[in-house]
Amino acid sequence: MAGVNRTDRLYALVEELRAVAPRPRSARWLAERFEVSLRTVERDISALQQSGVPVYAEPGRRGGYCLDKARTLPPVNLTPGEAVAMAVALRRMSGTPFQAKAGSALRKLIAAMQADDAEAARELAGRVHLLTDVPGRVPMSRAIASAVTAGRVLRIGYADREGAVTTREIEPLGYIGKEEHWYLVAWCRLRDAVRVFRTDRIHAVSVKAEVPPARPFRAEDLDIPYGVVTQLSLS
Description:
Number of domains: 3
Protein name: YafY family transcriptional regulator
Helix content: 25-40%
Radius of gyration: 22 Å
Strand order of the largest sheet: 6-5-4-3-7
CATH architecture of the largest domain: Roll
InterPro entries: CBASS_pafABC_assoc_protein, HTH_11, WH-like_DNA-bd_sf, WH_DNA-bd_sf, WYL_dom
Domain WYL: 142-206
Oligomer: single chain
CATH topology of the largest domain: SH3 type barrels
Domain Helix-turn-helix type: 9-65
CATH class of the largest domain: Mainly Beta
Order of helices and strands: HHHEEHHHHHEEEEE
Distance between the termini: 40 Å
């Protein structure tokens, strides 16, 4: 496979590991298979791991690299237009708790597509331009973005409309998204009640080791005086 570009090689590498999973392939075997150096194989494996592909190193004389087949996608039969449509939608994740995950999801999607469809999708994407004439959303800190899934108490400084900052310990429960802002829903220990915090007003976030008690997240707790709140569905 000498002369194959890196994108195609990464795709072929995943498919090779998928075909023999859960058995491993050694780095030397992969280097010979794809006609590259051992260093190139190691760099490719590292790139796949960083993009979220579940490739693991198995130690031992008969070890090597193996793929968690249950956690990977088979080739996805999306059209180039469908892939670009998803890329456009994922661009709207800027300033949300899912911005970083959107990027890794898109990389996984492209890596799982048939090579010719993925190339056609890249060509089509190069013909699409997005005009932005207003500043983007305020970047969200990693601690806030992972607050709900991390399952830890946060200590935050929160500014009200006048800019006065109070220090609070909160137990994250969920998120509410609007076009302009995102909000973190949490049990506020200062107020001893559920409160909604605008994420761009949260300052000096620190994650505590404490795991909070399980609390229900009910629709009636979302006392929103404007707009209609709808629950996100994956179906």
